[in-house]
Structure to design on (202 residues):
């Protein structure tokens, strides 16, 4: 159980990553991914990478610079500009709905203006899901200078676009609906220099 625990990626740059295992019964026409990160990196880094054999950036949460997040679906992306962090924990949720092509982005419990992305697309179900590296192939092809260094926690993936109430609940660590990936019962494998430690503060 990872309750009140974090993954610490100790090195910069790093070849470390965490493999996540989700039981996906079918392709995704809607989804929400949420996580909490803590880093002092100024360079580009990957937070959540979901690759299929057909598309290495099937779902990707990427931070090219401190004041910008990129959210990819099916290899295309939209950019959300954010205030430069105060070197504190940042909680992000990104959701996507195929029928409308609406991409939502929430930072620390607040929504950003919605954007359009990949209307009508379907996200493949056979996936390699990694934290800490950006895949340029299925389960590999890493650029160490896109690696994450710091702490990650509260990682979730749902097969639905969460309501605003649930987005805020994720930020506040309240009760959440059942998920494909849930921090409380995460099936994971550590690769390289990454360790599980208690969270230093709430």
């Amino acid at each position: 159980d990872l309750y009140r625990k974090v993954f610490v990626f100790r090195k910069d740059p790093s070849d470390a990553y965490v493999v996540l295992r989700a039981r996906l019964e079918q392709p995704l026409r809607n989804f929400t991914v949420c996580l909490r990160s803590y880093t002092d990196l100024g360079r580009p880094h990957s937070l959540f990478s979901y690759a299929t054999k057909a598309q290495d950036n099937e779902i990707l949460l990427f931070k090219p610079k401190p004041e910008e997040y990129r959210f990819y679906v099916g290899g295309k992306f939209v950019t959300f500009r954010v205030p430069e962090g105060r070197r504190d924990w940042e909680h992000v949720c990104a959701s996507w709905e195929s029928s409308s092509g609406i991409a939502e982005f929430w930072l620390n419990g607040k929504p950003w203006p919605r954007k359009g992305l990949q209307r009508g697309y379907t996200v493949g179900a056979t996936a390699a899901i990694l934290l800490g590296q950006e895949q340029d192939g299925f389960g590999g092809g890493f650029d160490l200078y896109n690696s994450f260094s710091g702490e990650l926690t509260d990682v979730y993936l749902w097969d639905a676009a969460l309501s605003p109430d649930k987005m805020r609940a994720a930020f506040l660590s309240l009760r959440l609906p059942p998920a494909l990936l849930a921090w409380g019962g995460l099936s994971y494998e550590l690769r390289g220099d990454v360790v599980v430690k208690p969270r230093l503060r709430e």
